[in-house]
Automatic annotation (TrEMBL), chains A, B:
Keywords noted in UniProt: Ligase
Superkingdom as given in the UniProt entry: Bacteria
Transmembrane segments: none
Keyword Ligase: yes
Record-given protein name: Coenzyme F420-0:L-glutamate ligase/coenzyme F420-1:gamma-L-glutamate ligase
Stretches assigned to the Coenzyme F420:L-glutamate ligase-like domain: 27-71, 84-219
Span list, region Disordered: 1-30
GO molecular function: coenzyme F420-0:L-glutamate ligase activity
UniProt keyword Ligase present: yes
InterPro entries in UniProt: F420-0_gamma-glut_ligase-dom (IPR002847)
Amino acid sequence: MSGRPENEQSAGSANRSAITVTAPEGTPEVRKGDDLAALLLTALGAEELSDGDVVVVTSKVVSKAEGNVREGTREDALPGETVRVVARRGPTQIVRSRLGLTMAAAGIDASNVEAGHIVLLPLDPDASARTLRATLRDRTGVNVGVVITDTAGRAWRDGQTDIAIGAAGLEVLESFAGQVDAYGNDLVVTAPAVVDEIASAAEISQGKLGARPFAVLRGRADLVREPGDDGPGASALIRPEGSDFFGFGAREAVVRALKGAAADQAPFGAPASVEELAAAVTEVTGIAPIPHGDGLRVDDADPAVVAALAFAHGWRCERDDTNLGATSLLQPMTA
Amino acid sequence: MSGRPENEQSAGSANRSAITVTAPEGTPEVRKGDDLAALLLTALGAEELSDGDVVVVTSKVVSKAEGNVREGTREDALPGETVRVVARRGPTQIVRSRLGLTMAAAGIDASNVEAGHIVLLPLDPDASARTLRATLRDRTGVNVGVVITDTAGRAWRDGQTDIAIGAAGLEVLESFAGQVDAYGNDLVVTAPAVVDEIASAAEISQGKLGARPFAVLRGRADLVREPGDDGPGASALIRPEGSDFFGFGAREAVVRALKGAAADQAPFGAPASVEELAAAVTEVTGIAPIPHGDGLRVDDADPAVVAALAFAHGWRCERDDTNLGATSLLQPMTA
């Protein structure tokens, strides 16, 4: 694994840990072909980068420099950026984008750009982060981490926070697996998404009015990897298709299960246990399934209902009309 | 609305905006009845609080000081903290808690506490934040904002970030409604959840090993409200029941729609438009509904399927057996 430079906080006061986030003003409008490293270094002026700094830059200026600006509206561009719709209500569409990000309108932005134009997300934000990191190393000799941010809504909570959509040279998850707290309890599942937290810290410093696309976070050099080791990138934080409990809006999940079951599509998501499926069938229909080989048999329940439940649980459902009355046979996907 | 003290950044360099987050070490184990304000001021030592600082404190030490620690396991305590299950797979339960927060195991924590004990979230984190703010004002004369944090998983992305579960004296959403960017575009929907971003910035400084429960963020005095004006609190960020697209896991949404439709329960969520419902019925059944009064009539489709779709879209469904064949009548909730 990556070696890590010594934590800068050891250079500070012994009894506190401090970070600073500086967002320089004075960056001109970014245009296609602009040199982001040069713009950052100019904006920083006398304040030089140091080993272990984390450079944060908004995806908007990365996209502008890379020429990922189009004439048109968000609605025009949305289909090309979308892999599938996650949830839709009225004019709001939350989609899974070509980058795997779940975002309203695929992160297409119509603010801080000429009227009548839109900014798409960078083609490969992790690659953009690696390039900027390497360029800064070439020009200054310092070893920094780079985060590329965008602003995203969340499930369950109002408002947006900035998240990392690209990263280079950084731990993205700070894993405590194998470590214990002061009481000896295992910290098994704790894994702070530090690049997302860095993105949010930068937003607090940058603000949203467009004049400060860069920020430099100092004080967590322990998160920065050695030169040449770019780490997994921010894309490693994206849950793969099918592994998320919330891969579909509640309404869309119902439509998808009923439709998918009727059309005999491949189920979505990892299969539930036979006990979980049996409990769901009993809960909905009042009829307890009967074990049947590796699977279950359900008698006298609406076959469409049973098929939708099977689909939602990642199981296959076959209707058996050899007996009198409706019988459904449920099989695990591996069968 | 609240007046705001002058933004501190004007006191710094004119061409950059900087925040600092300091997390002092040296806080002893917190016990029931401990005085958090005194512990913070002792930990800060010579570094005094200033007007416009934001004091961030983990919910864990707030709970410990308030005596919200129990003997037992997370499993024992979960039912008492849960309003309803949002999603469940295997041993993982994501629930909506009595505070309205959607979190794994209702935010009950078994780390950084004596083995065999658990820490529940504070009873009313916004009230705890208000109390700490008032106490700090009484003792020091300074006007700060207070954020109480917890660590939460997210939909769509791996890892956790710290969020604000309590707040006092702060803007919680920084609204740009009515403002325009440098190009004159409206910033209508942009509303950064600044208290959540502050919580994340603090986590970057505090870390997870328990020795630094406090942090002080300096540089965003513009977000701090006047003394006596505590603002809406962090609970204002929680989406109300029924208004969230992701109020149920995909699997749970299917179970709930099929069961709720069968049991003639009240639908969940705000009603969809008649066009949205008609499109869903057509998509799933292949049968286009026919306008019928304020609602729709669906002939020759599986009534259980139509009822589940109606339920998922916030509509009522009645089966009409006066005609030959299955007919479902769909009515908006207001009818």
